[in-house]
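Take a careful look at the protein record below. Let me know whether the structure tokens fit the sequence:
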Amino acid sequence: MVLAIARPDLRLTLVEPLLRRTTFLTEVVESLAAEGITSPFPIQAATLPDSLAGRDVLGRGRTGSGKTYAFLLPMVARLVNSTSPRRAKQPRGLILAPTRELATQIEASLAPMAKAVGLRTLTVFGGVRPNGQIQSLKSGVDIVIACPGRLEDLIKQGHCDLGQIEITILDEADHMADLGFLPAVRRILEQTPRGGQRMLFSATLD
């Protein structure tokens, strides 16, 4: 487990750790450049070398610190390089977020990269009818960005199986704790394979 705390004196060209993974498609780098992302925030510089190497990471970074790309890049890289096929109801990547708004923001950042490499994504949250989410899971998705409550409901109903998860991200873990989601998060994590990569990002690590 690697502990990473953003430091402004850290510098690392964002493209460097990506290009070290020779099978990580250049389309992703180009999609980042199209968004004006060519150099890293401190949290990205601190975590990318370890996360891209497949290590578990604890990252401390506040909202707006650039932490979203700090975990999206290694997730996309891992799944692009994976030999596991896409399966119905069995995503390979999982991102847990405390709110619908944050899940939607993560999806917006992920979408250009996922499209560039042919990964399917799905946001899962309450407050809307589950039919569309259920149908997408049946069709097969690679990455699920979910709020814990609705995800647990879909799992209990047999619409989602976490047995093929290769990488799990907990974003704003401190906020999830404040909202009382930690018991649900623990239950969800227990359903993912123990050998998978895990990353936790939080404004605090107390």
